[in-house]
Specification:
Elements lengths: L3 E5 L6 H15 L12 E5 L3 H10 L3 E3 L2 E6 L14 H9 L3 E7 L15 H26 L1 H5 L3 H18 L14 H6 L8 E6 L10 H13 L2 E5 L1 H7 L4 H11 L5 H12 L2 E7 L3 E8 L4 H8 L1 H5 L1 E7 L1 H7 L2 H6 L4 E3 L10 E6 L2
Parallel strand pairs: 1-4, 1-5, 3-9, 5-6, 6-7
Antiparallel strand pairs: 2-4, 8-9, 10-11, 10-12
Length: 365
Amino acid sequence: MGFKMGIVGLPNVGKSTLFNALTRTAAAQAANFPFCTIEPNVGDVAVPDARLDKLAQIAGSKQIIPTRMTFVDIAGLVKGASKGEGLGNQFLANIRETDAIAHVLRCFQDDDVTHVEGRVDPVADAETIETELMLADLESIEKRRAGLVRKLKGNDKEAAQQDRLLAAAQDMLENGRPARAVPVEDEDRRAWKLLQLLTTKPVLYVCNVGEADAASGNDHSAKVAEMAAAEGNSHVVISAQIEEEISQLDPEEAQMFLDEMGLAEAGLDRLIRAGYELLHLETYFTVGPKEARAWTIRAGTRAPQAAGVIHGDFEKGFIRAETIAYDAFVSLGGEQAAKEAGKMRAEGKAYVVQDGDVLHFLFNT
């Protein structure tokens, strides 16, 4: 299980530069990792995780297969997108298919790169796109509620639940706040997700800064950080220009370049991890001589459902999971040593898989 993040932004904020860096990175990975397909507007990249390399080294795994994240380059947006201006309709349709939004904001000054509004104000840019998404949601809600009238008169319970949730979203939007601010009860979560409202998607603000500000950010990115914190969203500081340069270097050259810039790691790695955390995703591992592999699950996933990520039959016939914590696997030097030290546990259907667990599933065929 991976997830899909849509990259959005106003014109000339660095969105295309960032996506080009991502797709070059993905293309470079294609020779090493299977299932890395590249389309013109899609980049499927590995989630960086040093733990996987360590596990593979200990187990002598012949192949390393990381978990993946898909980035989608969403059509550009202008004011009026909710009414179909520019590529508005395409923009909105593409966002509905993503799990989260990476909103690239211009946080750099460059007289040679024109801003669509004639100024550099990332907070205002964020509000422009958020407003368009809110307007699109309001229009969608009004149409859908009108279409539920007949079912409501017939006391349709599903329609009543849908109308109640739409009304809550409409009230929030009319008060100038996105639908994700609506408190949703557990019994309503599935129906809420099926509404596919644009403003329910979590947002990761990507502060695109100049090279000189890549390590510490600047005043513009600081304002974005304040906005993100107030909204309960996330942010990351990146120089798209640097990332594009790094994406064209081999690993050794890239590390030398990062060291010269005073950067601990590539911004794309931070972007991928931030997106991973935004959706409350975790990783577990399967390790053996043939391969060491990372698998993505949502936090709180129980063992049978985690097994189902590998194959549906694993979940259906689940018996138990043999579990070793990552730290124990590494400190003791592998599966056999962990087993002899009593660090391998047999867990049943109620077990909640923890981030970093090394698992082996037993199941009936």
